[in-house]
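Supplementary Text 2. Reproducibility record for the structural model of the 256-residue chain.

All settings were left at their defaults, and a single model was retained for analysis rather than an ensemble. We include the record here because the model underlies the residue-level annotations in Supplementary Table 4.
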Amino acid sequence: AMAEAQATRDRLTGIPNRQYFNDQLTRATARARRDGRKVTLLFLDLDEFKVVNDTLGHDAGDRLLKEVASRIQRSVRTGDVVARLGGDEFAVLLEGLTGPLEVETMASSLLALISQPYHIADRQLDITTSIGITMYPNDSADTQMLLKNADIAMYQAKEYGRNNFKFFHEQMHADLMEYHELERDIREALHQGQFHLAYQPKVNIRINQLQGLEALLRWNSPTRGNVSPGNFIPVAEESGHIIPLGYWVLNEVCLT
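Retained model, structure tokens:
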């Protein structure tokens, strides 16, 4: 068992190594295929790690890698697999996240935790990381392709300015950006009173009498035109804007 533990662990940081990670990825995708779920793969590569090694020496570099490994483990959920793939490259395997928003939450907390200052060799070091993200089965069903995808996305994140994340799949990145723009516009619309209510009569057919009104929320945006509730309600719910929106509707109905 000792030999096996050594074969699956990274000697420096004590977290799983590339071999173990690949094995877990194969198993996770098999489970996901069976259950119709998703697997998310995050590749992290430290920005400017070489500078630390060159200026402070390998001991400092090693201490930094150990600290980074423990920070990554702290910010993921139990059951998520964290591994060191080699050098200053780490990977995280997440099961059960459904789409860009949940993944973004995870990636953002990783970026934030890793970019907090390190105290090594009597100095304060500020290190950031770039994260590439790919999802199974959205981007690929093949594990080797997924690893390649995450790697490509990670290099794009570096080119994109570092200390950020990039989805391999452009559409996912676009969906996320669109969500944030819509969320911002909803917030604006609330402040600027762009919402209004349309009342729909409810008639009791048996006695042919008006029995009430249904208040329907409508949004006429100066930039987007009429936005369908099917588009803005889910975003309002997910971003928490539904609460002030609900109060506004109640208030408006009572005023009428």
